Amino acid sequence: MRWTMAGLVAVGVLAGAATYMAPTSGADEGAAVPIFGIKLPADYRDWRLISVAREEGKLNDLRAVLGNDIAIAAARRGDAVYPDGAIIARLAWDYTPLPESAAAFGQAQSHVALHPKNGVQFMVKDSKKYAATGGWGYAHFNDGQPGDAKVHGTCFACHQTVASRDYVFNRYAP
């Protein structure tokens, strides 16, 4: 009985230590964006790449578009409509010319990412829950905290310009 109790205590201590030491995203797990109720996916930085882009004008950034397994499979197949459960993430950074590149080529040629810019954004496909916005819910987080309702109220209006592509701007880059 004594050994059994000691074993149970040891298992409990190890489980508690593992939970305490588990990596976290740094975000408040309960924080959800207004309007759509989406929470920051803890593992989104481990998702695979769908595409990259350079935005000009007011945005002026470098971007990576990532997808969960459902979004990746749909993008690779070239599906006209993403299935429910697909989640797309957009990360963006300021950028600067790489000095070594300018020295090698005689001009600014290669650019590298600097600081994150304009938070991280998500599109979550749920055709029933988000029927009023083309089947997509939108989320914007800055430093792990959800953006306000004003930010989220503008997402669908922009994405309507690509309604023929299921409201998704990017395209899969094999």
Fold and architecture overview:
This protein is an alpha+beta fold and 174 residues long. It has a single domain (28-165), classed as 3-Layer(bba) Sandwich (Chalcone isomerase). Helix content is 26%, strand content 29%. It has helices at 2-21, 69-77, 99-105, 149-152, 155-159, and strands at 48-55, 61-67, 87-97, 111-125, 136-142, 145-146. The protein has a six-stranded antiparallel sheet with strand order 1-2-3-4-5-6. Strand 1 (48-55) and strand 2 form a beta hairpin. It is globular, with a radius of gyration of 21 Å. It starts with a helix and ends in a 15-residue tail after the last helix. Residues 1-28 have low confidence and may be disordered.
Describe the secondary structure blueprint for this structure.
Elements: H1 2-21, E1 48-55, E2 61-67, H2 69-77, E3 87-97, H3 99-105, E4 111-125, E5 136-142, E6 145-146, H4 149-152, H5 155-159
Antiparallel strand pairs: 1-2, 2-3, 3-4, 4-5, 5-6
In short:
The chain is of the alpha+beta class. 26% of the residues lie in helices and 29% in strands. It has helices spanning 2-21, 69-77, 99-105, 149-152, 155-159; strands spanning 48-55, 61-67, 87-97, 111-125, 136-142, 145-146.
Average pLDDT number: 84
Helix/strand order, N-terminal first: HEEHEHEEEHH
The percentage of residues in β strands lies in 25-35%
Shape: globular
How many beta-strand elements? 6
Q: How many H/I helices?
A: 5
Cα(first) to Cα(last) distance is 60 Å
Q: Return the structural class.
A: alpha+beta
Name given to the CATH homologous superfamily: Cytochrome P460
- Specify the helix fraction band: 25-40%
- By CATH, the architecture is named 3-Layer(bba) Sandwich
Rg over CA atoms, rounded to whole Å, is: 21 Å
CATH class: Alpha Beta
Total tally of structural domains: 1
Low-confidence spans: 1-28
Largest beta-sheet characterization: 6 strands, antiparallel
Q: Report the CATH topology name.
A: Chalcone isomerase
Lateral strand order in the biggest sheet: 1-2-3-4-5-6
